Predict the structure.
Amino acid sequence: MTDPIDPHTPPDPIDFSPLDPARDAARWDRAIAGVVARATATRRPGVMRELSRSGVVVFAVAAAAAAAMWFGRRPGAAAATTRDPVVEWTRWASGEDVDPLSLIDSGGVR
């Protein structure tokens, strides 16, 4: 406690020992063991784990579809249906009736 006459006297130290959780070692060890047991208990997989699992499946399906499309195409089939992109976009810009898919496909392989 500070001296009312001399305010520069340091106060008595505060005893924090009642707040020390390790003062009762057995109780402290039981508390730690309980926390560890709850943390390591079997629990549901997290959302990120489920997304990563399904992401692998989705990637594999997409890769298989891309491979099937790549190896399943016929050479020359695209050349027969490909139109000149300049002509298609010019027809669209001038207000003619143009198939929207032909505009999307106009950037195809020549």
The chain has five helices and no strands. The chain has two domains: 1-73, 75-110. The chain has a mean pLDDT of 78. The helical segments are 25-40, 47-72, 77-81, 85-93, 100-105.
